C-alpha cells in the first residue's frame, strides 16, 4: 500500500468512527483503531523521515479501551437524533485526539531504537506548578461518577484535587452552569468522560496513558514541563536464568545459571559504549550456581550458591576475563558487596549445618567477611550470625545492613573491625523481605508480601532502631538500587520499572506515576550507571538485558 492509498484508508477509518454503530462491535472497533494508529505512524515516518518509537501495548491500554466501549454501550438507548448529534461531536474529539502526533501510540518491532515509551521526569513541586498553570489557562476538566479521572489522579497525585474540574451528573441541579454548558447530559448524552475542554472550544478525552497526558495538555496550553525523558535504548537476549548484573565504565557484566545447571553458568561481558548496540565481548563458563556479582576496580567477584564459592576474575582486559582465585564460603552464599579491601557475603548457613532426624535444620544465616586486599589469595577473616535466609546486604564506611527473607529481620552490624563484626540492632521488617538500597541517611527496603511495599528507614543513628516511612507500590518489588537522589525499583509480576524521588519518599514520590515504565520481561535485577538503567528480565526461561535512558 503506497502513501496515497494509506491516506485514503485513513479517511475511510475516520469516517467509519463517526458511524452510530461503530462502537457496537468491540472487536471490529478495536481492530480499526489499531489499523488507524499504525497507518498514521507509517505516514508520519514517511513524511518526516523519523524512526518510529517502539512501545508495547499494556494491559492498562486495553482496559482503558474496554471501559470506553462499556460506557458507550450503556448509552445506546438514547433518542436517535441526540445520538447522531453527540456522535458527531465525539467524532471530532477523536479526530482531534488522534491528529496530535504525540498522542498516537507508535508500534514497531525494532528494539534497537534509542527511545521508547517516552515520559517526562517530574517531581511533585513541578506537578503542582503545572496544575496551577492549567487553572490559569482557562482550561476545564470534567468527570462523572462512572468515569473518574484515573489518569489524572495517577499522574498528578494530591495535586489532582486542585485541577480546574467539575463533576458532571444527570441531575441538572448539581451542574455549575456558569462555568460551562458542557456537563448537560440532556443536550449531549454521549460525551465520553473524563474530558478536557480548552478555551478555544476544542476538547479531548483523557482515557490515555499518563505519559501522553502531560504531552497533550502541554500542546493545548502554554504550560510546560521539564524535558528529561526515559526511553528504551536496546534490548538483547541473555542466557536462560540471568540472575545478577554489574556495570563498570562502559562494560556490563551479567551472570546466568544457564539452561543446564549441571553444565554450569556463565559470565558475559558487554561493551555498551554505544548503548543502542551492546556488543558481546566474551562469555566465560562458571561453576554450577552463580548467584551474584560485584565489580570493583579491575576485578569481578562472583558467589556460587551451589558450590559455596567466591570466584575472583581479573577483568583488566574485559574481552578476556581471567579466573585468578577462588575460596570456599559459608553454605549457599546469596549476595555480595565489595567495600574497600573486604568482600561482605551473606550465606544461608554455615558449613556444618545442624541436622534433626537426618534432615538439615536451618536456624540462622551468616554474614561473612573476606579480605581481598590480595585478590590472588582471598582470606576469610570474620563472620557473624544474622537472620534466617539473608538475601541482601549493603555496606557503608562502618556498618553493614543485612536483610533476611524468612525471619523478616533487618540487622545493623558494626564492621569497623572487619574481623569482628558485631550486632548493633535488630528490627523486624516483615516476611518476604527481598532487597535493600542505601541513599544518604535512609535505607530503602522491599517487602514483597501481600501487595508489596517499600520502606524508607532513617538510619542516621545506627544505635537507635530505624524509624520507617511506608511507600505502597502497586506490585511486588523484587530489587532496589539507589543513585543520584533517586531510588529505582523493579516489580517482577507486573513488568514495571519505577523511579522514586528519595528526598520525599511517600505516595507522591513516583516520578512516572504509579504505572511506572513497562519492561519486556519480568524484571529481576536493576543496576544504575547514569544516565542509563540496566535491567535483567525473564519469562519462560528466556532472559533479556534491557537498557533504558534515564
Q: How would you describe what is shown here?
A:
The chain is of the alpha+beta class and 550 residues long. Among the domains are: 3-103, no CATH class; 119-220, 3-Layer(aba) Sandwich (Glutaredoxin); 429-518, Thrombin, subunit H (Beta Barrel), CATH 2.40.10. It is 19% helix and 38% strand. A 5-stranded antiparallel β-sheet has the order 1-6-35-34-33. Strand 11 (290-296) and strand 12 form a beta hairpin. Helix 1 runs antiparallel to helix 2. It is globular and about 75 Å long. The two termini are 37 Å apart.
Question: Distance between termini?
Answer: 37 Å
Reported by name, the CATH topology of the domain at 119-220 is: Glutaredoxin
Overall geometric form: globular
Q: Profile the largest sheet.
A: 5 strands, antiparallel
Give the proportion of residues in helices. 10-25%
Residue share in β-strands: 35-45%
Number of helices: 7
Record the SSE blueprint.
Elements: H1 3-17, H2 26-48, H3 59-73, H4 80-99, E1 119-120, H5 124-137, E2 140-144, H6 150-156, E3 165-168, E4 195-197, E5 203-205, H7 210-220, E6 229-238, E7 242-248, E8 251-256, E9 266-271, E10 279-285, E11 290-296, E12 299-304, E13 309-314, E14 322-328, E15 331-339, E16 342-349, E17 355-356, E18 359-360, E19 365-371, E20 379-386, E21 390-395, E22 399-404, E23 409-414, E24 422-428, E25 433-439, E26 442-447, E27 453-458, E28 467-472, E29 477-483, E30 486-491, E31 496-501, E32 517-518, E33 522-529, E34 532-539, E35 542-549
